[in-house]
Amino acid sequence: MPAETKHGHILLYHRVGDTSQDPWGLTVHPRRFRNQLEFLRAARYPTSLSAMIDVQGTTLPSASEVVVTIDDGYAETTSTVVPLLEAFDVSATLYIPSGAVGQTGEYWWDALEGLILGPGRLPPSISVSVRDRRYLWRLDGWEQWPPSDRFRFAGWRAWVGTPPTPRHQLFTDLWHLCLPLVDTEIWSVIEQLSVVADSQPAPRQDRRVVTDQELRSLAKHPLISIGAHTRTHAQLSSRTPSQQEVEIEGGRRDLQAVIGESPKHLAYPFGKRGDYGPAAAELACLSGFSSAVTNIPGTVTGATDRYHLPRIFVQDWDAAQLGAQVPGRA
Questions:
Q1: Considering the domain boundaries, does residue 96 fall inside one?
Q2: Cα angle at 262 between 287 and 92, to 5 degrees?
Q3: Domain membership flag for residue 134
Q4: Would the pTM count as exceeding 0.70?
Q5: Which of 100, 120, 191, 291 is deepest in the core (most CB within 10 A)?
């Protein structure tokens, strides 16, 4: 009987916390996360990313191998995620954008969500300038955004269907407008919005990124491996080769300076096929990374290119929904 081909799945998480407003589906509730880990421990074979990469091509263990990865380095990892990983003895790779470590504000996509979809009033029209071009949106009666509307649209996901209101359209358009920009340009857009909205929302504690000290502590934890996520969480495909090198190699060096060792694994920011390209994969290899993961769904086999590893984007699912996305051995 021929030997089975090894296969496994890499899971992609971002946040574990409050799911009340989550336009990109990035957050898993702590209760759901606990249930997911319990399922993985009981019905799958949780392992580390290094172990999966190092032994590609061998036969399967008694259940499908699964690796947990968590992007962006939200500080709730230390208070919420690590205790649950410990409870079920599940390891995880944390991908950290080095430039965000210790920042006092939110990521730009969180700040954008707070300004546009947070409670409050916006003017009837919104105008911003980007690269000498002016963009204009009209809210057509959706200037007010009371808590009842926020609750009403809490389940909206930005990638599903047509935005239900002009506010949602504004959020979606601005997100896509910001995506290819460099960091200074993105924050110029956020600042313009803050001025137009006459609002400077205080940074939310649950959107804070880890500090240097927290990152060093995580790096010492036996269940945690620190991976790189570039320097500024840049969409690499919109950068020149030299800029990509600064993002990839610079992010690696930054993290090494904080935790005392070079990260072995890289995650491409945003991670879809249009968000990175062959140059990024080549730079990942040249920078000494053992692997690079994407945000493209799929199964890892012995034949999978380790610089184009697929991941399953985990949402606020129950155990049965997760099991359907991560099938075991037939």
A1: yes
A2: 110
A3: yes
A4: yes
A5: 291
Question: Would you say residue 300 lies in a domain?
Answer: yes
- DSSP assignment of 260-322, as one string? SS---EEE-SS-SGGG--HHHHHHHHHTT-SEEE-S----EETTS-TTSB--EE--S--HHHH
Mark whether 119 and 30 lie in a shared domain.
no
Q: Which two three-digit tokens encode residue 27? A: 């957050």
Residue 113's φ and ψ, nearest 5 degrees, are -60, -40
Q: Does residue 60 carry a pLDDT above 80?
A: no
Give the strand pairing for 120-121 and 144-145: antiparallel
Tell me the average pLDDT of the chain.
92
Residue type, 76: E
Domain shared by 252 and 235, yes or no: yes
- Are 139 and 98 part of one and the same domain? no
CB 259 within 8 A of CB 94: no
Q: What is the CA radius of gyration of the chain?
A: 20
Residue 3 is predicted with a pLDDT of 42
CATH of the domain at 271: 3.20.20.370
Which stretches within the chain are classed as H helix? 30-43, 49-54, 76, 82-88, 108-117, 147-152, 166-178, 183-197, 212-219, 241-259, 278-286, 319-325
* CA–CA separation, 294 and 271 (whole Å): 4
DSSP label of 79: I
Residue 266: exposure state from Cβ atoms within 10 A (0-12, 13-18, ≥19):
buried
Q: Tell me the residue range of the domain where 64 lies.
A: 7-104+206-325
Does the structure show a pLDDT above 60 at 62? no
What local confidence, expressed as pLDDT, does residue 87 receive? 98
What is residue 74's DSSP assignment? Answer: B
67 and 156 inside one domain: no
Distance of alpha carbon 135 from its chain centroid, rounded?
28
- First-to-last CA distance in the chain? 15
